Amino acid sequence: MDREKLKARIRALLQMTTDRGCTEAEAMAAAAKAAELMREAGLDEDQLEIGEAWFSASAGARSVLTRLWTCIASCTNCVTVFDGERGFAFIGAGPGPEIAAYLCDVCRRAIETAEREFKAGDAYRRLRKTSTRKQALLEFRQAMIVRLGIRLRELFAADNNTAAISQAHAARAAMFGPGRQVNLPTIKNLRSTAATVAGWSAGNDVPLNHGVSTALDTKLIGRS
């Protein structure tokens, strides 16, 4: 059984109490079954509160985009795991992982749209060399990522929870083992170029606010 489905089943069993209308026998049987499932899966009560959500990233872990995904993880009190086939997993107390995956999807689509518009513009099309165009696109993307990261950190500053992040780190180690640290690609000081200015402006135009939490809650409620 999928680990998240298993945790959902255990949580449901633990909700079967006499206060919720179950008989003493039903409550005891449910608690015993929950304990059995937790023991078999190697879960403790703290881990039941930890969830994971996957974000399918087309670019690899060494892409400059990874800096944005890890920034989003930090903003939502999550940690990440990268899998070459599945993408990025966000691990943390709910609904952090779901919000992180949702934000990544929003930002990815915004970046893809902005890059298409930039490449269709005169400033990019006037560049003749492939190498020059490639550099301009990189400068555009880096500036957009930096601006989005700044805005996200400002928006979620009040939600930062050191204890929750520590719990997420412990859960990741328990779920995936020690793993291997991936060095994030560096973004050097942004040069003042037309591409950088355009990327910064594009990052500033993406609608981001705490409404993403409300939007996500609405989606999740509609799914239940």
Care to describe what's here?
- The protein has 224 residues and is mainly α.
- The protein has two domains: 48 residues; 175 residues, no CATH class.
- 62% of the residues lie in helices and 8% in strands.
- The chain is built from ten helices and three strands.
- The protein has a three-stranded antiparallel beta sheet.
- Strand 2 and strand 3 form a beta hairpin.
- Helix 1 packs antiparallel against helix 2 and helix 4 packs antiparallel against helix 5.
The sequence of SSEs as H and E is: HHHEHEEHHHHHH
Spans of at least 5 consecutive residues with low confidence? 213-224
User: How many strands in all?
Assistant: 3
Q: Please give the count of helices.
A: 10
Structural class by secondary-structure content: mainly alpha
Percentage of β-strand residues: 5-15%
Largest sheet: 3 strands, antiparallel
For the largest beta sheet, what order do the strands appear in spatially?
1-3-2
Cα(first) to Cα(last) distance is 20 Å
Nearest-angstrom radius of gyration?
21 Å
Principal-axis shape: elongated
Query: Percent range for helical residues?
Result: 55-70%
Can you give the mean pLDDT? 82
Tally of separate domains = 2
Pfam family, one: DUF7168
Domain DUF7168: 64-177
Domain DUF2786: 5-45
InterPro entries: DUF2786, DUF7168
